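Why predict the complex rather than its parts? Because the way molecules touch one another can change local conformation, and only a joint prediction can capture that. The input here totals 560 residues.
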Amino acid sequence: MNNPTLKIQIAGVELKNPVMTASGTFGSGKEYSEFVDLNKLGAVIVKGVSSTAWKGNPSPRIAETYGGMLNAVGLQNPGVDVFIKEDIPFLRQYDTKIIVNVSGKTIQEYCEVAEKLSHADVDLVELNISCPNVKEGGITFGTNTAMVEQVVKEVKRYCKQPLIVKLSPNVTDITEIAKAAVSAGADALSLINTLLGMAIDIHKRKPILGNGMGGLSGPAIKPVAVRMVYQVAKAVEVPLIGMGGIMNGEDAIEFILAGATGVAVGTANFTNPTATIDVLQGIENYMQRYGIGDINTIRGNLR
Amino acid sequence: MKHIREADILKNQPIATDLWEMVVEAKDIADTATVGQFVNLYIGKGELLLPRPISICEILKEKNSLRFIYGVVGKGTKELTHKAVGEKIQILGPIGTGFQIKEEIQDHIVIGGGIGTPPLLELVKNLQGNVSVYLGFRSEPILIEEFEQLGAKVYVATDDGSAGIKGTVIHLLQKHTPTAQMIYACGPKAMLAALAQWAAQKEIPIQVSMEERMACGIGACVGCTCKTQKQGEEDWQHLKVCKDGPVFWGNEVIWYE
Ligand SMILES: Cc1cc2nc3c(=O)[nH]c(=O)nc-3n(C[C@H](O)[C@H](O)[C@H](O)COP(=O)(O)OP(=O)(O)OC[C@H]3O[C@@H](n4cnc5c(N)ncnc54)[C@H](O)[C@@H]3O)c2cc1C
Ligand SMILES: Cc1cc2nc3c(=O)[nH]c(=O)nc-3n(C[C@H](O)[C@H](O)[C@H](O)COP(=O)(O)O)c2cc1C
Ligand code: FES
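Output of the joint prediction:
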């Protein structure tokens, strides 16, 4: 078969293929660029950036669980100015799209970051209103429809790039939140962020994580993520970036069949530093096997 | 491009209770590794997603191989014991910033606690001059003869008194009151904290090898932080154990919250 088409569109931005990196698991690509040819990725979604440097949570920040892991990094990052100065020029050496994940403790902070990024050379902005690991901001914005509308509307005023809003799974009805984000101007949605979880060291009788609770990711959450992508795809018209436990090409295809336009690989990078490339290869193999000429034709296409 | 490579297992056997020794052939790692660095071992068993960081106990350059000593403490290390000689293991390395060795320094104190002892063997192989090694174990000491064969003076303490003095390395130091130009230590955090305090009183610089739970193991996820404040810096920061460490200067680590 001739070269199948892997190209996708996210809010008017063309990606050469649907495979991206999940925010926070890939840094700004520097470390993984020693393992992966970044030119091969549809986009790099970088770690969360905030208006000023954040120091993050106390250690331990990581706990492995059955088929997954908990993290409570708490969005440690050097701030948007350092990011713009150091990481954008690095990523621009590669032929891939740059998606910047934005964090904030207040609406004003989100807007400050969006404003600074609007003058910077980035392709898309992803608004993280779903981080379970910070006390203020983060998830509190993403679990209430009125708050979602407010923060998305405000950020939209400053953001020159198309805006992706990242949804939290820690809600009763994710379609309500999705609709609120879209009605407030979200150009695309990404889902899911981590599920709030906890693990206890029974010998010390203490939580394993320094922060007590943390976000669950990895294959353990995949069925929840696929279900949520499926529901949201039916509820809104904007493109979706699906993520949550994608380990290989088959997993990615599952998300696309559920209705995702793009996919992001997170925890799998830790298990295998070349996971993104393996996922891409797996998608191509699937298309070959079933004679699919264009990846866009199978999106949401369940029999 | 870097990649996880498969290494042939040349040896994998118990050497004490719940303590195993593994030797793998990995020429590229043996050629480039420095003292105090570690590797990621990828267990690759279904639900075990994260690599296990294990220190390099010896760099066997002439045999193109690496030696590790690991404690069997959980699922991953249990799985490691099932690997047979002739099988392969997925490995990435060398990783991290190890011990600094300064040629002009000729008097060294090396301190190990339990499973923190193995990486100190490669360190002692590379030190010039007088080396005293102070080791603390719960019950069964390991590697004593090997340190002695390298010409080091070795002092031992065990919690139950089954070898050496009964007590901890701190008791050993109080007993022998050694001095030196540099201290190197690896072991449990509480021990390292006490040693950093002791070294500060003695005004001897100390390098400590820290442990932290890791995810990526390559500096990307900021999962493995150590709270530090460098001399002359206004504020503390969270450095990465897998990249900036595992070895830090003892006086730069903030030991207590
Ligand atoms: C830089 C570094 C060097 C190390 N060198 C050695 C060595 O030479 N020999 C040795 O026996 N051990 C060493 N350790 C500790 C070793 O990594 C853990 O004992 C091991 O990961 C436990 O895995 P498990 O699956 O058996 O335990 P589990 O408790 O089942 O592991 C669950 C999770 O917790 C992590 N974890 C558990 N204990 C530790 C720990 N103490 N430190 C870091 N992560 C942990 C595991 O990696 C895994 O992700 C080192 C740790 C670090 C950070
Ligand atoms: C260590 C770690 C750090 C993360 N940091 C961020 C972040 O900064 N911003 C964000 O929106 N999501 C963050 N996430 C969530 C991931 O982007 C992703 O939504 C989630 O992990 C599910 O995908 P996965 O199962 O493939 O990892 C982080 C996840 C992990 C494991
Ligand atoms: S384990 Fe990911 S940064 Fe150290």
